[in-house]
Structure formats: C-alpha cells, structure tokens
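Here is one chain, start to finish.
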Amino acid sequence: MDTQSYLPVQPGVGMEENFLSLDDILLSHDRLPIRTECTFPRLGFLEKSSDTQDIAEGTKMELPLWLSKGLYERKRRVVSVELPKVYRQGWRTVFNADPNVVDLHKMGPYYYSLGSQMLHFDSPENPDIAQTLLQTFIGRFRRTMDSSQNAYNEDTSALVERLDCLEKGLFRSGQSGLNGFQSWEKGQATQLTASSLVLNYRKRKITDVPP
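Its structure:
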C-alpha cells in the first residue's frame, strides 16, 4: 500500500486561517509596514536601525503578519498597519485594467491570501481592495484553467511561474483532472474496488454468524 509521510492541509479561505497548513504558516511570516502609536519600553533591540533602549512612538518598521494582527486593536491604538504597495491605488489600477499581465508570484507569492488578511485592519480602502482581489481572481481564472487543460504531458514550469500559490493549486487540480480523463479515455483507469471499510464490515458480519 502506498503511504505518504505528509498529507497536505489546505490553507484557510478568505480572512480565515488554517494553522495546520504550511502555506498559512509561511503567509503569517510575511512582513507588513507598521507605525507604532505608543512607546514600547525596552524593545529597542528589535529595531536594528536604532540605538535607543525603547521603540519610540511614531517609529516605522516591519513586523510579521501574525505579530501585526496580535498588536492591532481598534479601541486602543498600539500600531497602525500600512498597505503593502501591491494593494495600493496605483497597483489596483493596473490589476483592474488587465490582471493577466501581472506576475503575481513576484508580487507575493500569497497575493490573494495576504490581501484577504489585510481586511482585518481598518482602512477606508478595504472595499476597493476586496473588489480588486475578486476581479483579479475572476479575470485570471479562465486563463489559468485553460492553460492547465491544454498542457497534457508538457513542461508546465513556464506556465505556473507567474501564478500566485492559490492559482498554482487550481492549475494542479486542472492538470490532475485532465490526466485522469485522458487515462479513462485510453482505458487505463484503475478498476473500481470496494472500500476497505466495506470489506472489513463484511468480514465482521461473517464471523458474527453463529455456527
């Protein structure tokens, strides 16, 4: 029987996270530009460009996503989170014009996931960010799936190198479906067999029958 040492866990959807997913773990370490809204005593060693003992109010620095979310509070202003440039107005204009020309892997590679996480932070631009994420996904989806269906037994590295991690997963699913269909069409599909649960249940029923 074939066994796998690791079964991949799918990342969370939208603003949710799955902490058993390697992709979500890597995403949580993406660094965000923040501005401190109060003094952080005796934490100056975290800011390498400063020799002071404390992190002063108004200091601009970068923190990982998980820490930024932990420090961010709507009522008590501890830190304010700035938008990464790829989600700002300039880049949103590019995405809205033609999302297919953008190399999302170079921009991310977790463009959709990080953009969804940015909605945790209050910003007047959140509705526009959400709309751009949706329209970008819709605009690139058909091309991604068409590419996966027209690359049977071919080198696909050039096709996927510009894709975001979510799009790469969709591409692999499309390829898997295509390969399965081609195998079925050629009569190479594996024969259907009964589930091991069904077989064990039948064996149990036989042994339970009194002599």
